[in-house]
Design goal:
By secondary structure, the chain is of the alpha+beta class. The chain has a domain of 114 residues: Sandwich (Immunoglobulin-like). It is built from four helices and eight strands; from the N terminus they run ααββββββαββα.
Length: 253
């Protein structure tokens, strides 16, 4: 009996001290741990998703911002009534009523004008003179400040030293410094003014009177021309006398 009771006591004493009983709570808590780890992973993925969406949002915002900046940094122009005429110039010097004015190459030439039908004032203007005979463009003034009355003085001697000038008709060109000579006229803006023309001539070298030959004078006939005129005058004289003699013989007069 004692041995049996000892065995029972031993078996009872072993069952409370059995380690698997204490390990089972830890095993039951492992699913909870895994679920907790999954829960913690979900916010992490959500956080990364929010960061991704946030970065995409920031890229979208930066793209729209750059577009707005580029559009705002572009040139701003005002459109005027298309029925309004383009801007132009009206010459003051030389006066339109003065007729053709001939300028000598080597002199200082003055031009002055008023602006007409101008709604948008250019920031600056360029002034040129062109000659179609030699296809040359002579610079008179560039980036010139716009005043109510435009005025330039052209040193034709300096222009002739840079590029030989001809005895020809020239065209005055007044235009917006930011435009082109071939630009299309626009309402309210200064169009390329190239309607005023003026003749210029090159001075001739001095020659003594005896050495001067006038190529276009009527008195400068050649000997052949003088002989021809003399022969024609003789034929006319003979014809007149012959007609008079026969008319008198037949009693006509």
């Amino acid at each position: 009996m004692k041995n049996m009771l000892g065995r029972r006591q031993d078996s009872n004493s072993n069952s409370p001290s059995s380690p698997p009983i204490t390990a089972s709570p830890s095993q039951s808590s492992s699913p909870n741990d895994s679920s907790n780890s999954n829960d913690s992973a979900a916010p992490t993925s959500n956080a990364s998703g929010s960061r991704a969406s946030g970065s995409a949002g920031s890229r979208t915002a930066s793209g729209s911002g750059s577009g707005t900046q580029s559009s705002s940094s572009g040139p701003k122009t005002t459109e005027y009534d298309p029925r309004d005429p383009p801007g132009g110039i009206s010459m003051i010097t030389p006066a339109p009523t003065a007729g053709p004015t001939y300028y000598k190459v080597g002199d200082f030439v003055t031009f002055a004008w008023n602006y007409t039908s101008l709604s948008a004032t250019p920031s600056a203007i360029d002034v040129f003179a062109s000659c179609s005979k030699n296809a040359a463009l002579y610079t008179i003034s560039v980036n010139m400040t716009v005043e109510p009355t435009g005025r330039v003085v052209w040193d034709t001697a300096e222009a002739n030293r840079k590029q030989n000038m001809l005895s020809e008709t020239y065209t005055l060109i007044v235009m917006d410094a930011e435009s082109e000579i071939t630009a299309t006229p626009r309402s309210g803006y200064l169009a390329v003014a190239k309607d005023f023309t003026f003749p210029m001539y090159l001075p001739q070298e001095y020659k003594a009177w005896g050495e001067y030959v006038c190529a276009t004078c009527n008195s400068g006939m050649a000997s052949m021309e003088r002989q021809t005129l003399t022969f024609m005058a003789g034929i006319a004289t003979i014809t007149v006398f012959s007609f008079t003699y026969f008319a008198h013989g037949f009693g006509i007069f």
